[in-house]
Each structure stands twice: as C-alpha cells, then as structure tokens.
C-alpha cells in the first residue's frame, strides 16, 4: 500500500499533515499585542471614526455654550438693556455708543436684542440648556425603564416574556398609527 504513488490531483491527506506542531511553529504563531477590554476597544474605534469625532466636538461645544458660557456672559437671561430694543447683531444703542466714545469697553450684543431689550445670545444659550437637559433626562429614563423591562422579561421567560414582548410591539405601532391617521386626514382634504 505504501508503494502506491499518490495522485497529485487527489485530495487525500498524509499522516504528516496531522503531526503536532513543533515549538518553533508554535512560537511563530504567537502575536504579541496589548490586551484590549470593551471600553478601550470602543474608544479606539471612536477615535478612528472621523465623523464621530467631529460630531463629538460639536456636541461638546454646544454643551459648553449651554451650561458654562452663560455664567461668564456679561448680560443675564432676564436683564433688559434700556434703549436697546430690537437691535441687530453687533449694533449698539445710543447709550452704549456714548460709552464707547468715552473710551470704555462695551461687550457687543452678538445676536442683537429682542423687542424688550434682552440679549438674544444668552437667551438662546439658556434655551439650549433646557432642551439638552430634557433630552438627556429622557434618554436616561428610557435606558432605565427599558433595561429593567427587558431584564424582567428575560428573567421571567416563557409566557410572561411573550406577553411583555407583545405589549412592546403594540407600543411600537403607535407612532405608525398616528402617522397613518395624519396622512389619511391630509389626503381627504
């Protein structure tokens, strides 16, 4: 049997193909790199994604403008500047122009003022703070409620899991039903 020549096109394997690897072969397969945990891997992927990094910078700038900058802004949220009603961006009132002519520094109204003489920039920053706070709070609540609901469903399993998942499916259809009703009303008119 050993005297038979093996056909080169045959897929038959030799016994040597199944021999244990030598120590030199084992060492050649070792790849040395730093062990990476879940958070390090996530941060590495985030740093490599340019769009995500630009978005992160924009979000941090918006958060800085909403939470930190109003405390250093020279005008307050409710302060009314007399004689500065309906000013355009970087426009000065007569009183401010008089102070500038006397050589004093006057902080410009970057976005102008509203009809009551309040600085629009600081009011926008405070409004952004409220919107961001509501969004963050809603996200945290959804995370807490969803994680607990899912954990209860997974832990209970069986029939309770099926009932809870059907309830979730019904809740997911509500926005679609609302949109369908709005489309139906719009097409009737």
Q: How would you describe this structure to a colleague?
A:
This protein has 189 residues and is mostly helical. The chain is 61% helix and 0% strand. Helix 3 (50-67) packs across helix 6 (120-156). The radius of gyration is 34 Å and the shape is elongated. The model has no long low-confidence stretch (mean pLDDT 88).
List the helices and strands and how they pair.
Blueprint: H1 23-28, H2 38-48, H3 50-67, H4 69-72, H5 94-101, H6 120-156, H7 158-188
Helix pairs in contact: 3-6, 6-7
Question: What is this entry, summarized?
Answer:
With 189 residues, this protein is mostly helical. Helices cover 61% and strands 0% of the residues.
How many helices? Answer: 7
Shape: elongated
- Give, in order, the helices and strands: HHHHHHH
Mean pLDDT: 88
- Count of DSSP strands: 0
| Distance N to C terminus | 90 Å
What kind of sheet is the major sheet? none
What's the helical proportion of residues?
55-70%
Structural class: mainly alpha
Radius of gyration (Å): 34 Å
Tell me the strand percentage band. Answer: under 5%
Task: Note poorly predicted spans.
Answer: none
């Amino acid at each position: 049997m050993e005297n038979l020549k093996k056909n080169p096109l045959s897929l038959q394997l030799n016994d040597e193909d199944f021999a244990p690897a030598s120590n030199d072969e084992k060492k050649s397969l070792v790849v040395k790199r730093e062990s990476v945990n879940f958070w390090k891997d996530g941060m590495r992927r985030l740093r490599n994604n340019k769009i995500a990094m630009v978005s992160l910078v924009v979000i941090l700038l918006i958060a800085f403008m909403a939470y930190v900058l109003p405390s250093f802004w020279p005008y307050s949220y409710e302060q009314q500047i007399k004689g500065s009603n309906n000013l355009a961006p970087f426009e000065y009132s007569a009183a401010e122009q008089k102070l500038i002519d006397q050589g004093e520094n006057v902080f410009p109204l970057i976005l102008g003022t509203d009809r009551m003489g309040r600085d629009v920039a600081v009011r926008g920053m405070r409004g952004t703070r409220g919107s961001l706070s509501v969004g963050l709070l809603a996200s945290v609540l959804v995370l807490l409620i969803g994680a607990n609901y899912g954990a209860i469903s997974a832990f209970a399993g069986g029939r309770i899991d099926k009932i809870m998942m059907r309830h979730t499916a019904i809740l997911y259809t509500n926005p679609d039903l609302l949109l369908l009703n709005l489309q139906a009303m719009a097409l009737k008119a």
